[in-house]
Amino acid sequence: HILMFKKILFASEFGPVSSNAERYAIDLARTSRASCHLIHVIEAIHLDDDQEVENLYTNLKARASFQFDKILERFREAEVSCDGHIEIGQRWRSILAAADEYDCDLIVLGTRRFDDHSRPYLGTTSHKIFMTSPVPLLVIPSVTTVAAPSRADTP
């Protein structure tokens, strides 16, 4: 029995953590003949009506839109229907809300790999989504590894 998905939410942070997950999202969508919704979330800074923060968000969104368009183009080149949006908010909450709003039946996102001396910590975006998602979640390890801090970095 092959799992078939209709709408896949791909959450990207535009870095090496997401590049491997992007390939999986494209392949799954193509195999399942599913469409995709791409989301990029800029983490919110909670300050009351601060114009500098608003200017920062405007600049971050402008910079993100370039990367966003490149990802959308890669989906289209693979003949996968894909739309998406960039938003400001808490990453894990925004991703779950988008999965609900766009009727996604799978969430795909990347996560950092830790080396043998590092301890992954709870409370990451992928962990929060894993613990609360009402739809299946596919977490793809990045191709790069996060190294343990050096002794000089530890107290």
Q: Brief description of this entry?
A:
The protein is α/β, with parallel strands linked by helices and 155 residues long. It has helices at 16-32, 51-77, 91-101, 125-132, and strands spanning 7-11, 35-43, 82-89, 106-114, 137-146. 41% of the residues lie in helices and 26% in strands.
Key terms for this structure?
4 helices, 155 residues, 41% helix, single chain, 5-stranded parallel sheet, alpha/beta
Describe the structure.
- It is a single chain.
- The chain is of the alpha/beta class and 155 residues long.
- The chain has four helices and five strands, in the order E-H-E-H-E-H-E-H-E.
- It has a five-stranded parallel sheet, sandwiched between helices.
- Helix 3 packs across helix 4.
- The longest helix has 27 residues, at 51-77.
- Mean pLDDT is 85; it is low at 146-155.
Q: What is the CA-atom radius of gyration, in angstroms?
A: 17 Å
The span between the termini is 52 Å
* Order of the strands making up the biggest sheet: 3-2-1-4-5
Q: Looking at the structure, what is the overall shape?
A: globular
The major sheet is characterized as:
5 strands, parallel
What structural class is derived from the secondary structure elements?
alpha/beta
Task: Tell me the total number of β-strands.
Answer: 5
Give me the number of helical elements: 4
What is the chain-wise order of helices and strands? EHEHEHEHE
The amount of helix comes to 40-55%
State the assembly state of the protein chains. single chain
Q: Into which percentage range does the β-strand content fall?
A: 25-35%
The pLDDT mean sits at 85
Which spans of ≥5 residues are poorly predicted at pLDDT below 50? 146-155
